[in-house]
Specification:
Layout (H helix, E strand, L loop, with lengths): L2 H13 L4 E2 L23 H4 L9 E9 L16 E10 L4 H13 L14 E6 L3 H11 L6 E4 L1 H4 E3 L4 E12 L17 E19 L2 E18 H8 L12 H11 L7 H22 L8 H19 L7 H12 L4 H5 L1 H35 L4 E2 L1 H11 L3 H10 L3 E2 L1 H20 L6 H10 L15
Parallel strand pairs: 1-2, 4-5, 10-11
Antiparallel strand pairs: 2-3, 3-9, 4-7, 6-7, 7-8, 8-9
Bound molecules: adenosine-5'-triphosphate and magnesium ion (MG) (3 copies).
Main location: cytoplasm
Subcellular location: Cytoplasm
Cofactor: Zn(2+)
Length: about 475
C-alpha cells in the first residue's frame, strides 16, 4: 500500500463521513511564536480553543509536519522523522469520544478491499488515561477489546493541555503489535519498539485553570462544546503496511536512502552505523526539500538555521559514509521524484530549491576544506611537538571562525591519532556565551550563532539543540 494510497483512503473515509477535506497548511505556521507546524491540529487551533467559530463541524486533513525535537531519534528508532505527515480528523462540538473511537477502529480494521487499512484486530492495542473509565468502556463495547489490551497511562503520556487556561482532556493512543521478533510481550506500557504508536485521539473535554504546568491544573468543569483532535502518523502506517522495517524504508523515503548508499558504494544493511547514517540522510534531505518548497531558505537564524543544520548534518553523514564529493544533486533529485506525486509543488519549485541546496552544499564543503587545512596544520604541529592532545583553542577557533562543528574536529583529530582538550574547548565556548550575553545587555552586536541559541530557547517545543549534540 503506497503512502499516496493511504492518504487517499484516509480522506475518502472521513470525507464520506461528513468531514470537510482541508488541504495541508504550510510547514511555516501562521503563528509567529510557533516555528513550524508540529501537528495536524495546528491550523485548527483557533477553532479548537473557540477563539474563532469553526466554519464546519467536522474536518479532516493530511498535514505536513516538522518536529526538530525528534532529531536525536531519527534513524535510530523505527518511527521518528523530522518531517512526517499527520492524518487528522477533527470535530468541533460535534461527535465526541464514542464517535472518534468508532471511526478510528472502523478505518483501521476495515478490509483493504473495502477502502480500509486492513489491520488485524488481534494486532491492535490501546492506551487510555488512567481516570478515563468512559474511554475504557467505549473501547470494550465498540472494538470488543479485552481489558488486557487496554492499558492505563498517567497524565504525562495521556493527557493533553496547552499549559494555559483553556481546553484540556484525556488522550487515547492506538498501537500496532509487530510481534515477538521485535521485543517482549506486555503491550505499549512495556515496550515501544515492538508496539508502535500509530494514532493519538485527543478528547478535549474540560476547561482548566490554575495551570502551573502541563500536568498540574484545576479542572473547572466540562466544556459546553467538546472537541476531537486526532493524529495518525502516515509514515508509521505506511511502513507497517509496506512490510518494511521502519519509516525510512517507505516508498516516499527509501529512494533517497538508496541514492546515498549508491553514492557511497556501501550496502544498506551491512553495517549498523552506516545504516543510521543512510536513514538520517534520507530523512534530513526530505525535510530540507519540503522546508525549502514551503519558502524557507538556509540562514543563520530561526527557521533558516534549522534548515541549514539539517543540510549540514546530511553532508556530515555522507562524509562519514566516505563521500567527500558533492551529493545533493543526486539526493535531492531522488527525494523530489519520491515526493512530487503527493506534492506537485515540490516539482514546480524544484529549480529554485535545488539552487539553494547546491549553493548550501558548495559553501559547506568549502568551509570543510578550509577548516580541514587549518586542522591538518594544527595536527602536524601537535604531533611534531610530541603531544597527543589538540589544544582547546584550536578547536574553538575552528568552531568560531570556520563554523566547524566540534564533533567533526573530534573525529578528524581521532583519525590523526590525537585527542582534543575538550574541557578547554568547553570553557572557551562558555566564556564566549557569557561575553555575548553581556554584549546583548549593553545592546552591542551579538555574535550571530549565539543569538540564534537564544532565539530557539524562546520557541520551547521546537528548540533546536546545538550541533555538538547532533552527532550521529
Ligand atoms: P512517539 O511517542 O512515538 O514519539 P508522540 O506521542 O510524540 O509519538 P503525537 O504527538 O501523539 O506523537 O502525534 C500523533 C501521531 O503522529 C503519533 O501517534 C505518530 O503516529 C505520529 N508521529 C509523531 N511524531 C512523529 C515523528 N517524529 N515521525 C513520524 N510520525 C510521528
Ligand atoms: Mg514523540
Ligand atoms: Mg507517544
Ligand atoms: Mg502520542
Amino acid at each position: 500500500m503506497q503512502t499516496a494510497d493511504i492518504q487517499r483512503r484516509w480522506l475518502d473515509f472521513f470525507g464520506s463521513r461528513g468531514h470537510t477535506v482541508v488541504p495541508s497548511a504550510s510547514l511555516i505556521a501562521d503563528d509567529p511564536t510557533v516555528m513550524f507546524t508540529i501537528a495536524g491540529m495546528v491550523p485548527f487551533i483557533p477553532y479548537l480553543t473557540g477563539v474563532v467559530p469553526a466554519p464546519y463541524a467536522r474536518a479532516t486533513s493530511v498535514q505536513k509536519c516538522i518536529r526538530t525535537n525528534d532529531i536525536e531519534e531519527v534513524g535510530k528508532t523505527t518511527r521518528h522523522g523530522t518531517f512526517f505527515q499527520m492524518n487528522g480528523n477533527f470535530s468541533f462540538g460535534d461527535y465526541f469520544k464514542a464517535g472518534a473511537i468508532e471511526y478510528a477502529w472502523e478505518l483501521l480494521t476495515l478490509p483493504e478491499s473495502e477502502g480500509g487499512l486492513g489491520f488485524a484486530e488481534k494486532d491492535l492495542w490501546v492506551t487510555v488515561y488512567e481516570e478515563d473509565d468512559e474511554a475504557r468502556r467505549l473501547w470494550k463495547s465498540i472494538a470488543g477489546l479485552p481489558d488486557e489490551r487496554i492499558q492505563n497511562m498517567g497524565k504525562e503520556d495521556n493527557y493533553w493541555s496547552t499549559g494555559q487556561p483553556g481546553p484540556a482532556g484525556p488522550c487515547s493512543e492506538i498501537y500496532f503489535d509487530r510481534g515477538p521478533a521485535y521485543g517482549p510481550e506486555g503491550g505499549p506500557a512495556v515496550d515501544d519498539t515492538r508496539y508502535i504508536e500509530i494514532w493519538n485521539l485527543v478528547f478535549m473535554q474540560y476547561a482548566i485553570d490554575q495551570v502551573t504546568s502541563k500536568t498540574d491544573f484545576r479542572i473547572l468543569g466540562e466544556l459546553p462544546n467538546k472537541n476531537i483532535d486526532t493524529g495518525m502518523g502516515m509514515e508509521r502506517v505506511a511502513f507497517l503496511k509496506q512490510g518494511v522495517e521502519n519509516m525510512y524504508e517507505i516508498d516516499q523515503v527509501r529512494p533517497v536512502l538508496d541514492a546515498a548508499a549508491g553514492l557511497s558504494g556501501r550496502r544498506y544493511g551491512a553495517d549498523a552505523e552506516d545504516d543510521v547514517r543512510m536513514r538520517v540522510i534520507a530523512d534530513h534531505v526530505r525535510s530540507s526539500l519540503m522546508l525549502m518548497t514551503d519558502g524557507v531558505a538556509p540562514g543563520n537564524e530561526g527557521r533558516g538555521y534549522i534548515l541549514r543544520r539539517l543540510m549540514r548534518r546530511s553532508i556530515r553523514a555522507m562524509r562519514l559514509l566516505g563521500v567527500d564529493a558533492p551529493s545533493f544533486e543526486v539526493l535531492f533529485g531522488a527525494s523530489r521524484d519520491a515526493m512530487s506525486t503527493a506534492y506537485p509543488d515540490v516539482a514546480e519549485n524544484y529549480d529554485r530549491v535545488s539552487r539553494l541546496a547546491l549553493g548550501e552544499e558548495e559553501a559547506f564543503l568549502r568551509t570543510l576544506a578550509a577548516g580541514t587545512s587549518i586542522l591538518d596544520l594544527a595536527v602536524d604541529r601537535t604531533a611534531k611537538a610530541g603531544g597527543g592532545t589538540l589544544a582547546g583553542d584550536t578547536a574553538f577557533q575552528l568552531h568560531d571562525t570556520f563554523g566547524f562543528p566540534i564533533d567533526l574536529t573530534l573525529e578528524m583529530a581521532e583519525e590523526a591519532g590525537l585527542s582534543v582538550d575538550r574541557a578547554a574547548f568547553d570553557r572557551l565556548m562558555s566564556e564566549q556565551r557569557s561575553r555575548a550575553k553581556a554584549d546583548a545587555k549593553s545592546k552591542k552586536a551579538v555574535l550571530a550563532d549565539v543569538s540564534v541559541y537564544g532565539e530557539f530557547r524562546a520557541h520551547g517545543e521546537t528548540q533546536f539543540l546545538g550541533y555538538e549534540q547532533l552527532d550521529t
